[in-house]
Amino acid sequence: MRQKISVNVNGVPRENEVEPRLLLVQYLRESLNLTGTHIGCDTGQCGACTVLLDGQAVKSCMVLAVQANGAQVRTVESLASGDAYHPVQQAFWDLHGLQCGFCTPGFLMATVSLLQRNPNPTDAEIREQLEGNLCRCTGYQNIVAAVRSAAEKMRAAPAASPTPMPAGAGGE
Amino acid sequence: MSVTRLFGASVKRREDPRLITGRGAYTDDIKLPGMLHMAVLRSPYGHARIKAIDTAKAKAHPGVRAVYTGADLLGRMNPIPCAWLIPDSDLKVPAYHALAKDTVRFTGDGVAMVIADDPATARDALDLIDVDYEPLPVVTSQEQAAATGAPQLHDDAPGNLAFHWKFAHGDVDAAFRDAEVVVKHRFVQQRLVPNAMEPRSAVASWNPGAEELLIYNTTQNPHIARFLTAVTTSIPENKIRYIARDVGGGFGSKIPFYPGDALAVFASKDLGLPVKWTEDRRENYVATIHGRDQITEVEMAAKRDGTMTGLRVKALSNMGAYLSTAAPGVPTWLFALIVPGCYTIQNYACDVFGYFTNTTPTDAYRGAGRPEAAFLIERMADLLAAEVKMDPVEIRRKNFIPADAFPYTTAGTLSYDSGNYQAALDKALAMVDYAGLRQKQAELRQQGRYLGIGLSTYVEVCGLAPSAAAGAMGFQGGLWEPATVRVLATGKVVVLTGTNPHGQGEETTFAQMVGDMLGVPVEDVDVVHGDTGAIPMGWGTYGSRTTAVGGTAIYKATVKVIEKAKKLAAHLLEASPDDLEFEQGSFRVKGSPGKAKTIQEIALMANVAWNMPEGMEPGLEESTFHDPTNFTFPFGTHICVVEVDADTGEVKIERYIAVDDVGVVINPMIVDGQVHGGVAQGIGQALYEHAIYDEGGNLITGSMMDYTVPNATQIPTIETARTETPCPHNLTGVKGVGETGTIASTQAVVNAVVDALSPLGISDIEMPLTPERVWRAMRAAQASAAPTGQP
Ligand code: FES
Ligand code: FES
After folding, report:
1. Angle of CA points A122, A126, A129, to nearest 5°
2. Could you report the per-residue pLDDT of B480-525, keeping only the tens digit for each?
3. Atom 3 in ligand 1: which residue has the minimum CA distance?
4. Single pTM value for the model
5. With a 6 A CB cut-off, is A102 part of the ligand 1 pocket?
6. Which residues in chain B have their CB less than 8 angstroms from residue A142's CB?
7. With contacts defined as CB-CB under 8 Å, which chain A residues touch B26?
8. B624 has which bridge partners?
9. Which of B279, B311, B395, B502 has the highest count of CB atoms within 10 angstroms of its CB?
10. Superfamily of A84-161 according to CATH
11. Could you report the predicted ipTM of this complex, rounded to two decimals?
């Protein structure tokens, strides 16, 4: 039995009929063609699928699409506004926080959430709070550096922190 | 030629904008009209005969388009080939069917496949296939496989022996006869799971009209995949186009050609529609290759003064159930030749036995044979040091190939082209304050604390490879690399490379190099890889070869472009080519600075070809095929400092120093990143990772829950530094850095832990050095020491 859901994804209201067992990550990737959110394990271990659900970082392979009914979802596609990258994106680029890039969208979203909770984390806190995101390429060192740098920039220019939600980032 | 501006600069990666915005093009992101989805039914048994398969219910399931079993493929698909046929080793290559014919030989072996309208339906239908299995006895370790009476996997491989490969140099028997000291040890290189974060995926699309195959695939080497697809499916090679643009990590696991790839192609061709197959992580654990899994018995002959004189190695390698694409070359050539390491040992013998077992096939995993070699020799150096009561630093200095001895032919018959092992060691010792640390270690020991310092002075062989060497080793291919550099009418540059970087950053590195040489902005240079439709040939990215081999090819092609441009410039400036100088993108007549043409102006004329010198062809495009004359030999010293918790056995890495010599560095930021990631994987092996099978052949560490892929809290900060000894035999001086970190690091960690615990009389602990294993080793050592009253 398909169920109707309404979800606001990256500022765009969506209405779809979905299978009850459809995962949120599959909904994003398959139904909305937002392929920036990746599937590294689909069992909640790797964090590649991390998105913001009503502002909280969640692993979208652990959430059913129907559970997102009525919620706000933000994916990596919404981070930049026009040509301006989110400070977290910018820091990952500046400091070589990615190699193959497969884990990166998950790290970016987890970092946005982390810095909302804790705008001035220590390196140890960064490492602990990103424990749920795995990267096989970078050894994490430049990821930690990027998070630290993004935190500094966002503290220095708080206006930049709440990223505007562009209407055109809805995919499809 | 001025190569100064970009070459050597930490230019930010041009790969990143698409990857940080979610606009990458990984294979699973691809959607084609009419695309169907494939799922593979995999054996739940380690070893079983298939008595019957009933697919009727699956076929009748709504949304299912087709179901195939091994019987459906017979005569229509060739077995998955092995492409490294090591000579003189009695190599056996049993048929590896994409779907088992009558026997399954590992959990994960393919039994049937379902093609359906969506992935969930395909997976659901797998449950509707009835397979009647007759379980057979299982053997999972190479030592069991070698035993008499062991269950046999293949009729054509008696004793489960896949090969026995031998190597010897010098007078090994004499070295042992004359030895004043002999140190013996048995090492276990545990099995690892590569765990690239992107699972494998293929989207195969057969065009029945043109009779052409387009396939998107997560491969490190699209041209090899194209060739092996042709061999397996009988689709002509010139009718196959592979695209692998963004690949989410590989570490060797995306070198092989897999049954899943072949099956997607088969189904697409059979049904005339695109077919996508993306493995899930559980499938990745059992159906994508594993790495390492080698047991070695090592003997080292030496003099009392610490001089190493001979080395004997017997290695038992677990090949898994079948021979994967490059598998036989990994524990033989890639391992054995570099075992003597940085040392002047000239008497060396190595016997490698490869065994079939009821496990996932093993193949190249980051470093591929060389981490095993570096581990072995660097652990033996420490064991010898302990035996003759020398400091680990001194034993290394004593046996190093001296800096003035290069080029040096080793007992592994490699010709090390350059090196300065002392310099890297000295630099690392200074960074870590070795003397001060030893002092501190002594003080902490007084307090019952266990600080350990581990060294790894490694050398590796990479930049694979001179094609003649590849051929002599039985690799069924060359390892040269082509390049095309094309300057368009607008002055924009296209670089085609047959390598396929997937995280290593060569879209940037190569653009830096070409931009510098041509004097054009780096933004104007586009590097194209991962498309066999655009790039005529190539051997791919692995073996730290991309920049050293592929980059050198690009360098040569760029030099040719400049030569042609210069002739055209001379024509247009009415000057002799000899009177022109080329600097920062302009050809100038020497002595008359006003007379000049930019490379963009030359490119425009070359492309419109209105006014060309007599006999010059239009276009500004050159191709080359670079075949290296030797391997490259990066080296360095890694030092790991650990403290072991006396109560819990937990190992804490206090400092990690990596001094590497990878030759000339084009982009230091990227090189550091490669070292970080490589070291993290080496630490992963030392401390955390272990693929374990139970007696029935089930992989009990078959998920990210049960197999530890290190997270951010488990990897320390890595302090990197470099010495720079340019590679003397290629034009760039580059050696390669993709594997150094992994090759160098594992033994540094283990040596550190053993050093920490040496007061307890501990001389080895088998990897991974989990708290439990370390704790048990400490308890056992204390128990056996207790009667004498010594702590
Ligand atoms: S895909 Fe969701 S945690 Fe791995
Ligand atoms: S960048 Fe490749 S997994 Fe993180």
Report:
1. 130
2. 999 999 999 999 999 999 999 999 999 999 999 999 999 999 999 9
3. A44
4. 0.96
5. no
6. 672-673, 676
7. 35, 38, 102
8. B483
9. B502
10. [2Fe-2S]-binding domain (1.10.150.120)
11. 0.96
